[in-house]
Structure formats: structure tokens, C-alpha cells
Amino acid sequence: MKVNVEIDCSPEEARRFLGLPDVSKANEAYVDATMKAMQGVGSFEQLQEYAKQLAPMGQMGMKLFEQFLSAGGVGAKK
User: Fold this and answer.
1) DSSP assignment, residue 21?
2) Are 65 and 55 within 8 A, CB to CB?
3) Which pTM was predicted?
4) Cα–Cα distance measured from residue 55 to residue 64, given in angstroms and rounded to the nearest whole number
5) What is the torsional sign of CA 65, 71, 72, 75?
6) Amino acid 77: pLDDT
7) Of 24, 34, 31, 65, whose CA–CA distance to 48 is shortest?
């Protein structure tokens, strides 16, 4: 037997329902610090080196960062 349940809720509602902590302030601080640090980056190579130093999740973090860049983020102009 297969049962599908579809729930329509916001990410915030899902987070609360699952009992996960609210890390939005920590995320904002991390993003702000990252954006400020990347403002001084002059080339794509410098940006990649900086990302390697940051990489909080190792390779998975790097993949997410690369997706951000390919989507038109910082460093897309060369």
C-alpha cells in the first residue's frame, strides 16, 4: 500500500513543526560576513580560493557555492 500526503506550508511552519532551531540570525550574519569579504575579490581565482577557506561543509559547500556563482552571483563577470 502506498500513501502520499501533501502538506502546503511555509519553510518557517515546517521548521517549527519539525522542532528545528531558528538559525536565521546566524545565517544572516554568515551571509553578511561572506558578502563583505567577497567585495574585495578582484578575480574568479581569488574568489575560488576564498571559497575553499570558507567551505563549512567541505565539498558539498563548494558545490553549493559554485551553483551560486553559475546562477549569476559574484564573480560571474570576467
Assistant:
1) -
2) yes
3) 0.42
4) 10
5) positive
6) 45
7) 65
Spell out the alpha helix ranges (H) of 1-78: 11-18, 24-38, 44-54, 59-70
Q: In angstroms, what CA-CA distances link 28 with 31, 32, 36, 37?
A: 5, 6, 12, 14
- Cβ atoms of 62 and 51 within 8 Å: the answer is yes
Helix, strand, coil percent values for the chain (each to nearest 5): 60, 0, 40
Q: At what angle do helices 59-70 and 44-54 cross, to 10 degrees?
A: 150
Contacts of 37 (CB under 8 A, 6+ apart): 50
- For residues 14 and 2, give the distance between their C-alpha atoms in angstroms, rounded to a whole number: 23
**Block mean pLDDT (10 aa), the chain, length 78:** 93 90 86 77 74 66 72 52
Q: What is the dihedral of CA 72, 29, 35, 41, to 10 degrees?
A: -130
